[in-house]
Amino acid sequence: MAFVIPTPPRPAIPVEGMEPLFPVRRIYCVGRNYADHAREMGGDPNREPPFFFGKPHDAVVPGGGEIAYPPITSNLHYEAELVVALGGGGRDIPAEEALACVYGYAVGIDLTRRDLQAKFKDKGQPWEMAKGFDQSAPVSALVPAARLGHPASGAIWLSVNGVERQHGDLAQMTWNVAEVIAHLSSYVALAPGDIIFTGTPSGVGAIVRGDRVRCGIEGIGELEIVLV
Description:
Residues 27-224 form the Fumarylacetoacetase-like C-terminal domain. 17% of the residues lie in helices and 34% in strands. By secondary structure, it is of the alpha+beta class. The strands form five sheets. It has a six-stranded mixed sheet with strand order 4-3-15-8-9-12. The longest helix has 11 residues, at 177-187. The radius of gyration is 17 Å and the shape is globular.
């Protein structure tokens, strides 16, 4: 197949212990999927249906490293999250079948221009530009579910310059991984290569140029970025 411009490179994530990469098709994110984070953001902590937003697939930063502080913000926030990578898909996937679609898991940071998000919310406008900017989705190497299993619990944490800012447990998610996949597949047809950021515990906050952000999930791995 011929194209009129050079083909953009395909975003991909390394897989722990393997040479082949995981190709990224789409990035989906779940909003306020931990009750304590919903409270700190002024939302309802009860078990309401999950809501979703997206990021461009080339916003992924495989393995972390240096991240350019984005323009048009003075309030950039971190959010440590479990990332689910799909090796299967479909539409209207039953929750009891959803985990069969999972290829593996990783640690991710959902970077957010919080001031822009608040501004757009106040005006009733969409807030993609607060979430879907360049380098807004750092992700660690994937651990295949065939090796790891499907973690339903485990510590999730984040520190800034060595000071812990977030600490929670995957068991605190309002909607677990299988339920997230089931709900999301009622909106769109999921496919191999999709990744899902599954929400963050409380303790989100601002970071500035020069900050070193480290996060991890028990049994999965760690991720580090530096704001430049």
